[in-house]
Each structure stands twice: as structure tokens, then as C-alpha cells.
Amino acid sequence: MRSSSTACCVALGLSLTIGCIQPEPDFTLTLSPSLVSPGILGTGAVAKLVLVFPDGSSSVTLVGSVDDPDSLLLDVPAPIPAGTRVGLLVEDAGGPDDAWSPSATRAYGQAWTDTDLVQGDHVLEIDLIPTGEIAELDVVGENRRRWSGAAVTTAGGATYLFGGGDPEDRLTASNIILKLDPTAPSFSNVGQMPVFEGAGETGPVEVSAYTQNTATLVTVDEQEMILVAGGRSTVNGTFESVRGWFLFDPATDTIVDSKETLTIPRSGHQAMAFADGDVLIWGGVTDTGVSQLATFEIWKAGNRRVVDGDDLGAVQAGRIFPMMAPLDNDIIVCGGFTVTLAVDTIDWTPQSGCDRIQTNGDVEPFPALPAPLAAGAMLALADGSLYVTGGTTDTLTENWFAGDYDQGTATDVAYRYDPEAEEWQIASSLGFPRGRHAMVEVPGKGVLVIGGSTEITPFFGRLGEAVRCIERYDPESGEITEEQCTDVGRGSAPLVSSYPGEYVFVMEGTWGGPLPYEGEASTYGLTSLGPPL
Q: For residue 506, which of 451, 426, 465 has the smallest C-alpha distance?
């Protein structure tokens, strides 16, 4: 996905040459696509050229049939200014020539012009990524310490990985910041996490590597940033959680701010951005364990400060493994576990309650789920509804000192919230019971339900088998179907991140156990979301 001024080249038998007869007769642009997944093109496909100019204007033009791609010529504006996004759509035939047809899209790839294309022969190399099907690309390799870390995909298509544990050593966390460059695609080490103070068993300690942290895309001073918050130094333990957060600038790959101002040390929490750019930081555990649970706080983008949320008693949802999704300008939090400490045991109890959290920290009532549920997944759909799947309804009892943990069986339930009726309705059941999984909506392709494990446990208990098969939910028909079985997104807590008009990044989670778990948390793949129009 890069531009050059060399002779035309052909990749995998598909070369699309775009020639312009005015105002520069010797201007040519060749798109040289590489197919990252077999069978993308098939038969009966057409190619479309997508131009998104620096001023935000765009155009979609039919190039021709992919069945005979040797001489596909098209007049295009010249010059093409630097910073133009040039995309290649592969669609089923029959759609409009000058528009994107999401439901018919087979694949999409894009590149950026780094110079004005005026005269000469120019080549743009493009990786064609399938839409709605996860293509396995590679493994993270030696920097694979990513389990229980966090992933963020930015507007430019790059994906960043922050923290995480080493699958081969559960006492070792990572201090590496990795970047998946969309122009390669390959991972590179672009920095290290800052050092924060954590509370160890015998006193304060320095923590420079984290797991169970969060990373959230935010806008600060009209610039895109990534907020990384909390975490702890080991996977197998609750001590040494930190109160630190830092801002990472993807434009320069540098840390631009860091502070230790979270209201409480926390790890294993969740974070989500409000529409105004503030960030809700919810639940998890403190440095002294699950008996002292964090509630929630809000990181304010305007002044980079953290404020306490409402009183603990006002919150109906659980603190560990709840489900979160945006709705209008608020964030809905549903289900999750609350934890009760007895003499020698801890009970994890699923909740059915839901809360509507406003950016000022106020909590409003929201209709409860039809049944208690924890460790499921919730997604805000394009039509304004909410979709919940999987998780467990079982209460879990653990004796951490004896290493004895209950296992909750994952469920196949699915619910959908109707914003007009203001109620939850039962949706089509999943084909595969799963928990600690992820979901993402792909334009024209419905919702992909990815990964998870067959059983749910407290933080350090034995996980069930990995769920390998991806399912697709169609919001219009209400039907759910099995689509693809792959190692890319299998297991508990897979890393899944996306940005509209870019890609969905997917990396496997973990399963089995007890510690160490199976799965290297290293295999990753991408699926395309189509052009940024």
C-alpha cells in the first residue's frame, strides 16, 4: 500500500491500469493488488475505483470485470493530489457503477498517494482484504506477549498493541508497544510503556510492564490519541495494579502525557469512549484483590483529569466481566459479576441489571436483561439497537488460596434491545455457546461473533475449550449462521479492534489450563470494512 514512480507491475494476474488523456496525456496509474486470501475474486466479480480526496470529497467508478483484467482503462482526474486515498473494491456484478454496494462487496484494499501524481508512470500496491471473512496473515513472532493486553485501530488503518502477558510465562508481562503497519502489513516495536508505581505485597514497587490494561481511541485537542489506563505487572496475581494512565500519539508514535491519577489502582477493568471524547473506566480489581472492587471513573479529555463516578450503591451492573456499548451520547453497562467475600471463599454472582452512564458521571436506570449474565458481549448496531450474546448465568465460587475455582458453562443466549419499545427481546440463539468473546458489525455483512471459550471462570481458573467458529448475525432477518472456523480469533478474550472504513484486527485469545493456558495469543488476521465513504 505505497506509491512509487516505476513501471507498471502485475501481481497475481490482476493489473488494473488507469490512464488519463487530459490534461496530462502521459499520466498513468497502475493498481497492483495482492490477494491475502484465496478465493476473493472467484467468478462474476467487478472492480471499482474509489478515490477519497484530501478535502473529503470522493468518487466511485466502475473499472470493469475482474474476469478479464488485462486492459481495464479509465479516465481519472489529473493530477491526483498527495494524500488521496485510492481504493480498489471487488464486488458482485449488478450493483450501481458509481456507488459502493456493501452487501455485494467481496474485498477491499487501499493505498495513499504521498506525492502529487501528475506525469509519468505510477504504481500503487494494494493488499486486497476480504470483507466479512477473516484472512490469516501472520504471527506476532518474538514480540508475542499480548494475552490480556489491549488493541486499538486508528483512522489510518494501523493497529497498536499495548501490554499483555507472555503465554509461556504467566508471571511475565510486556512493556512493548507494537504497531501493525497497514503498508506492510507487519508488526514493529515503536516504544515502551512508562514506569508507574504499583502496590506490591511488601510495599510500593515500580511497574514498567502491564497486562489486564485497557486502550481507547480518543480525541484530544482535535487530535487522535490513544488512552492506555491501569493494568498490573503479572497475569497470575492481583497485586501491583497501577493508578497510571498515558496518552500515545499515533501520528508520531510517542507518549505525550502520563500521570498516576486514577482514583484507585485497577486492572482487569473495561474502558469505552463517550461521544464527546471522555472515557468511562469501569470495574476490575484493585491491588488488594477482588474483595475491594473498583467502581467507575471518567477520564476527561478536555483537561486530562479523572473524576469519580456515582456512588457504588447506584450501580446495578456487575464490576467484573460486564458488557458495554454506546447508546446516543451515553454508555450502557449490563450484567457482569458482583463479588461477595466469605471466610475462605469468594462468590462471583452474575447480575441482570443495566446502567445508563452519562459523561458527567450520573447514572440513570436502564431496562435490565431478561436474566443474569456475565462475560458475554454487547454491541451497538447501526440501527440504534443493542445486541447481547453468550456469557454465563452460573454463580462461581472460588477458593483462591487453595487454587479451587468453579467453572461456569457458557450459554448460547442472545438478546436485542429495541429502543422504540425500550425493552430487551430474545433473539436467535447462537450455534456455539461461548463466553469472553467479541463481536463486530461489518457493513452489508451483519455482525461477526468471534472466539470465546466454552466455560467461564474467575480470573485465574481453568478455561474451557476454545470456540473456533465465527458466526454471522443478520440484524434484518434475525438469523444467525455459521460462517468460518479459524484459529485466528479462537479462545477467551481475543483482541478485536476496528475503525470505520479501515479494517477489523483479530488475534486469538487463550483457553484450557489451569495456568499456563493453551494458545500463544500470537496468530492474527484482518477483515475489511470497505471504503471510508
A: 451
The model's pTM is 0.91
Spatial contact of 521 and 175, defined as CB atoms under 8 Å apart: no
pLDDT, one tens digit per residue, over 183-235 is 666 788 899 999 998 876 677 888 888 888 999 999 999 999 999 999 988 76
Strands 120-130 and 27-35: parallel
| E-state strands within 174-269 | 176-181, 186-192, 196-200, 203-207, 214-220, 223-229, 245-249, 254-259
CB 386 within 8 A of CB 417: yes
In the chain, % helix, strand, coil (3-state, to 5) comes to 0, 50, 50
Which of these, 505, 438, 459, 510, lies nearest to 234 by C-alpha position?
459
Phi, psi at 412, each rounded to 5°: -110, 15
> What mean pLDDT comes out for the span 83-98?
90
| Closest by CA position to 181, among listed 146, 214, 156 | 156
As a whole number of angstroms, the distance between CA 329 and CA 493 comes to 27
Residue 8 confidence (pLDDT): 31
Q: CA 272, CA 341: separation in Å to the nearest integer?
A: 28
Answer yes or no: are the C-beta atoms of 174 and 164 closer than 8 Å. Answer: yes
pLDDT digits (tens, 9 = 90+) for 373-431: 999 999 999 999 999 999 999 999 888 666 677 889 999 999 999 999 999 999 999 99
CA dist 21 → 24, 78, 80, 330, 391 (Å) = 6, 9, 14, 52, 59
